[in-house]
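Colleagues,

For the teaching module next term, I've prepared a clean inverse folding example: a structure given as tokens, and then the sequence designed for it. I'd like students to try predicting residues themselves before seeing the answer, so please don't circulate the second half yet.
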């Protein structure tokens, strides 16, 4: 059961980090430069691959 809890925690951390990076990419794209869209594309691609 502990292994399952650890796996769930790792997955949750990974998904949380991906959502923070994706949101940061959107904000930087809107405020700074459209080239930050690449960050959003990369992060969501990895998140999609993980799912």
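(Answer key — instructors only)
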């Amino acid at each position: 059961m502990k292994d399952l809890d650890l796996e769930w925690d790792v997955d949750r951390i990974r998904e949380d980090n991906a959502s923070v990076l994706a949101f940061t990419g959107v904000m930087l794209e809107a405020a700074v430069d459209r080239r930050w869209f690449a960050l959003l594309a990369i992060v969501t691609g990895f998140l999609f691959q993980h799912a």
